[in-house]
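FORM 12-B: Structure-to-Sequence Request
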């Protein structure tokens, strides 16, 4: 039996001009996780990451502490996160949505939402709910996102034969797609989307989701492990 370990990136730089950069917390989360791997897990036989900066920096911090060789990393952009800012912008431009002209409860994107994590989370959940419901007016549809992540999971599972371990550094939305697909592969689209949202909203930065790969294919074993985190290092956004 093989294993795929899905790792969410460290905390990114919320509220700054470039979200796709690890915060100081994010760097320390990555180092803590690398140290935990060195003490508790066998060395991986394959390292995979998306091509976003926060993926690269997280794996770099992990590798530094764990003693892994960065030259062996496979870059797979199919593990990238969806464009959450584009989805929020699309939601705010929808007639009747909060923030649309004349709509009640408007959000100030460059004000409170950009710097208020709770307000941003409320907006994020409403915007992604609309996107996952099948609205096709985005550059990447939810169905397209699910398709590319499921393909990436299949490729990672294929490298994880008996006795092999693949570590994948990716994002919360991609991990949630994998979990929803593994929990209920035959779910109808609305049910699968609801499962995805529930996983996506609670995925911890640098958490580990464990997928075992056997003769029947990949199966979800654990979700959201984070034994290396405590106090202020336990973050969701």
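FORM 12-B RESPONSE
SEQUENCE OUT:
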């Amino acid at each position: 039996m093989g294993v795929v370990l899905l790792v969410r990136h460290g905390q990114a730089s919320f509220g700054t001009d470039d979200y796709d950069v690890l915060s100081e917390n994010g760097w320390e989360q990555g180092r803590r996780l690398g140290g935990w791997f060195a003490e508790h897990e066998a060395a991986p036989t394959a390292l995979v990451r998306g091509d976003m900066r926060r993926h690269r920096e997280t794996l770099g911090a992990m590798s530094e502490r764990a003693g892994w060789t960065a030259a062996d990393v496979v870059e797979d952009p199919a593990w990238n996160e969806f464009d959450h800012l584009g989805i929020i912008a699309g939601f705010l431009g929808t007639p009747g949505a909060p923030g649309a002209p004349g709509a009640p409860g408007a959000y100030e994107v460059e004000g409170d939402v950009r710097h208020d994590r709770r307000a941003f989370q409320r907006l994020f959940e409403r915007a992604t709910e609309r996107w996952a419901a099948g609205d096709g007016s985005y550059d990447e549809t939810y169905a397209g996102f699910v398709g590319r992540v499921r393909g990436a999971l299949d490729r990672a599972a294929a490298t994880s034969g008996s006795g092999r371990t693949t570590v994948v550094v990716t994002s919360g939305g991609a991990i949630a797609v994998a979990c929803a697909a593994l929990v209920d592969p035959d779910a109808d689209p609305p049910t699968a989307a609801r499962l995805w949202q529930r996983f996506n909203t609670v995925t911890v930065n640098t958490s580990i989701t464990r997928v075992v790969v056997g003769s029947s294919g990949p199966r979800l074993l654990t979700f959201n492990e984070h034994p290396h985190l405590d106090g202020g290092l336990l973050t969701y956004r």
